[in-house]
Design a protein that fits this description.
303 residues, 11 helices, alpha/beta, globular, single chain
């Protein structure tokens, strides 16, 4: 039985425990996931299953060993990895998001029943008593928090003895990391209203995709596309998307580039050091090859 450390300020009609208000630095993600509710969800049997593939590769978990395990997922968004966890394991999933996206997660995954436990809370004030979870994951989130190091420490506090923490994040690969359209335009775009930013992208996304593809075709994409203000199609998106799916994924990932209040990439070695300082033993810290590009992944256990 997982124990709480505090009481919610409200319990939603759908049973979601809410420990925070919606108005916080993750407002862009609440807006984003209400607009793109199902874009990244796995559709088992008839579509790409990138989320499940990424989950299983990055964690290296043997799913048969997770029956009745308690897994904490922090930063769940619309529930792409929530669904992958529920579909691929028989564990109890405690899924947390700071934004209003938690409502979308419920719509997408409540069909999985009592194994799913949703709450809206801050990574800095997780509502559970420490050291209760067999596994803790945080994918695609840490770089968007105000204090990356503190976020790692708060996640580590949730890991029980013998348990494991797995995170991925935007990496610093070298001096050129921030020589990129994202960091050129973000000082402006992160201050735009979400509606205005999305409308701007919708008006321009088709020709930007074509420009990206032209640069790839003539062999200059590796350099030139760093300055095209859309996501890295070749290295971040699933293969085999239809034209409509490609446009939707690019629109989502580009909005995700430009809208968040925070974007703080880190070196893998730095994150490993923070894991150790938080009382964990690092078991893995490298780039992992995925279907779409590479991910910076660190795993650590509490001994």
């Amino acid at each position: 039985m997982i124990e709480f450390s505090k009481n919610p300020i409200i319990i939603g009609e759908n049973g979601i425990l809410k420990f925070v208000e919606n108005d916080n630095y993750t407002a862009s993600f609440g807006y984003q996931w209400n607009k793109f509710q199902k874009t990244q969800l796995d559709r088992f049997g008839n579509d790409v299953c990138q989320s499940s593939s990424r989950l299983l590769v990055e964690t290296a978990w043997v799913v048969e060993t997770l029956e009745e395990a308690n897994i904490l997922e922090v930063g769940s968004g619309a529930g792409r990895f929530t669904r992958a966890l529920l579909e691929n394991t028989k564990a109890n999933i405690f899924s947390v998001d700071y934004s209003a996206a938690v409502e979308v997660n419920f719509e997408n995954n409540s069909v999985y029943g009592t194994r799913l436990h949703l709450c809206q809370a801050s990574i800095y004030e997780l509502p559970y008593k420490p050291q209760q979870f067999d596994k803790v994951i945080c994918f695609g989130v840490l770089q968007h928090t105000p204090d990356f190091k503190r976020s790692v420490r708060c996640l580590a506090e949730m890991v029980k003895k013998g348990g494991e923490l797995v995170v991925d994040f935007y990496p610093v690969k070298g001096w050129w990391t921030k020589i990129h359209a994202k960091y050129i335009f973000r000082p402006l775009t992160k201050r735009m209203s979400h509606q205005s930013l999305l409308a701007l992208l919708e008006r321009n996304i088709s020709w930007l995709i074509k420009l990206y593809q032209i640069f790839e075709a003539v062999g200059i994409g590796r350099v030139a596309n760093r300055f095209v203000p859309i996501c890295d199609i070749r290295n971040t998106l699933p293969k085999g998307l239809s034209e409509h799916q490609l446009k939707e994924w690019v629109l989502l990932d580009t909005f995700d580039m430009f809208s968040p209040a925070h974007d703080h990439p880190q070196k893998i070695e730095t994150v490993k050091k923070w894991m150790v300082e938080a009382g964990l033993k690092v078991t893995f810290g490298e780039f992992i090859s995925l279907e779409a590009g590479k991910a910076a992944v660190v795993r650590a256990v509490r001994t």
